[in-house]
Amino acid sequence: MSTGLLMVYTGDEKAGTAAVLGQAFRALGRGLRVCIINFAPGLPLSPELIWPERGRGVLEVHDLNQGPTPNARARGKEGYAEPGLRLVKDALTSGRFDMVVLSDIAALTSKTTAKGGRVIDILRSRPEGLHLLVTGQDVPDEIIAEAHLVTGARASGALT
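-> structure tokens emitted (160 positions)
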């Protein structure tokens, strides 16, 4: 089995997301199964927008910021933290995916335990061959320390 990589893209929200979506498309093109979980507000993602028709069965997209839900309103801005943690853990440990993309992980780590401790424990539970890509402007140092690749991305005029 190959070694899965933990890749961290910090910096501008749009640039990091563009970089990981590019990686996801490359993985899909090579026949890998990809899950994208979006925590970034104001950045709607759906399988239909990303890869119409062809994505069925190999691409799963979860957008946890598609507007307020009764559950989120009941618990305030932390409404998606617990469901988000469960979703991330399932995506990482289910064996259904070869690559998992966590867009704006900092949004989740800031809403859970100090410095994202629970998130880091869940990220450590991923199987050896799974590639994990995370983005965020304030990725916790604990995640960066475990990464195989860390890069700072900046949006060019084309992305702004």
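The chain has a mean pLDDT of 76.
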